[in-house]
Amino acid sequence: MSAARVEIGRIGAPFGLNGWMHVASYTDPPEALLGFLLWDLSRAGAALGARRLIEGRRQGRGLVVRLEGIGNRDAAAALTGVSIEVEREALPPAGEREYYRADLIGLEVRNVEGCSLGKVAYFVDAPAGAVMVVAQGGAEHWVLADPTHLLQVDLDAGRILVDWPEQLG
User: Which residues, in sequence order, are CB contacts of 152 under 8 Å at separation 6+?
Assistant: First the structure.
């Protein structure tokens, strides 16, 4: 993902036979993903081109969508795991104590005891909410990315202060 683009979701498994697919939305609320009509797709950082959103809707606890040029299950399956990105300028400004995940990747994470836990490597969407995966050497800390645990984010200094014990790595 380039600095000019921000990942706002990820394509999941096909849904039905006519090119529909599940998507994981990283927007709040999740349906806000459907407001972006042109999606830049990429896999492992390699651009796959842009696709226009034809239609989308809530399905159970998630979203399903249909993209231009994807008309069957096989074409939808070929996009499983692909990142959905948009130009940063298309995003609204983050609110107070709100951050885009892309802006946190690579920041150093320290806990309230002053221990360095590593750097933010990526995020995982878990049932309890977003989890920030902080890596250092071969160790990983999975820190809940909520206001209870994320105490301070200093983008200028490249640091995050968390209330998370080092032992919970």
Answer: 160, 161
Containing domain of residue 135, as a range? 101-164
Is there a single domain that holds both residue 11 and residue 48? Answer: yes
How many folded domains does the chain comprise? 2
* Cα angle for residues 81, 76, 46 (degrees, 5° grid): 45
User: Contact at 8 Å (CB) between 19 and 76?
Assistant: yes
Question: Do residues 29 and 78 share a domain?
Answer: yes
Query: Is 118 inside a domain boundary?
Result: yes
pLDDT in tens, 53-106: 999 999 988 999 999 999 999 999 999 999 999 999 989 888 888 888 889 999
Predicted model pTM:
0.76
